[in-house]
Here is the input.
Amino acid sequence: MKTDYDVIVVGAGPVGSTAARYAVQHGASVLMIEEHAFIGSPVGCTGLLSKRALEECDVKPSENFVLNKVRGAFVHSMDGNCLPIDGKETKAYVISRKIFDRTLTTMALEAGADIWMNTRAVGLENAGDKQILSVIRNGVSLQLETKVVIGADGVRSGIARMAGLGKVRKVLPGIQIEAPYRSADPNFVELFVGSQAPGFFGWAVPVSEEIARIGLAIDCEDSQCAQDYLGKLLRNNNHVSSRYSGGMLDFVVGGIPLGPLSKTYAEGTLIVGDAAGQVKPTSGGGIYTGAACAKIAGEVAASAALENDTSADRLAEYDRRWRAKLGRELAIGMKIHDFMGRLSDTEMNKLLASMNKPSILETITAYGDMDHPSIVIKKMLNPANSKHIFGVFTAFAKAVL
Ligand SMILES: Cc1cc2nc3c(=O)[nH]c(=O)nc-3n(C[C@H](O)[C@H](O)[C@H](O)COP(=O)(O)OP(=O)(O)OC[C@H]3O[C@@H](n4cnc5c(N)ncnc54)[C@H](O)[C@@H]3O)c2cc1C
Here is the structure.
């Protein structure tokens, strides 16, 4: 049994598989370990991916995993009004995460990575120029030596904790059902803002004309609390209750990490994806950002391992490069998240009503980008648009951008 790998990636989610593939492509021998016996299960995701997210993962939209196409959103506020945002063309795909994750893991295996399933990392120790990773494989304890460990082990990352890299700023509880639901238009997602999902938002993402993924995340530590809010959204929101036929086909609970780790590297260790909090704070989406960072992590881990310099100073290149690519957008996103979370229902109603003007909707159509919301906000600050928009928001946006 081969055990001497240059790089071990802990976690074979989309981010771990991408990091593993890039590490192999940059010359390293790579082992992925995954605690579950299946790839892509259990699913903790709505599966809404922008076109850019697929590109970043180096996959084409395939009918193997694309279930539906989305071109816009209807944003429902607490006063019963709706802001229609039409991107006019396909902006995102609704995917099967199970098949998508398996596609990415297959790509890593085809590139040359190995994988151990049913293998859980339980300890990490730095011993000079090597890392000792303790794992339990099929119930048997083993110690593996490697040059670099990449922690792609998700929102409650044990590798980040064991490497002394702390925690993300906050974790929002998210909850979702897949259920019979007649969407207003299956090419539009429906979003529910204000006190029906305090601190974040609710959603109904159409999988087909008859089925949607209906869920929410809230800014509160308690997942029972999120479950209560979802119950209320399903029962008390007239729009939702008139379209939801009851019951469910699938039930998902998960945490959304917001606010990246202040340091994502240590001696012989890199942290990536949800484990590092590389998630868009405005949407909770982590595939695009995670994949973008995973490619850098894989490349830097491989180069450092082949140079036999896996010191923290050497691996800091990863941190510098991913922050140069995404750090500003994530920081702005965090400020938008904080600002939106502080708005009262009345203020949120006013903000959405103020955006419901032809010139502003045209701006959103032209510049809306679910991965880079700062672009459209900047465009909305031009004098022709900003005179219409709720002043509190304009003042905030001018200060942030
Ligand atoms: C309700 C909800 C809806 C979401 N919707 C979207 C969406 O529509 N679009 C989007 O882009 N993002 C969405 N996200 C976020 C998205 O799911 C994550 O950002 C994404 O899964 C992160 O990928 P990852 O590979 O970093 O982590 P994960 O997908 O969590 O993978 C981590 C892997 O590590 C394994 N692992 C953990 N610990 C160990 C260990 N000790 N040893 C071995 N293996 C281990 C796990 O089993 C898992 O397979 C959503 C999240 C939630 C909670």
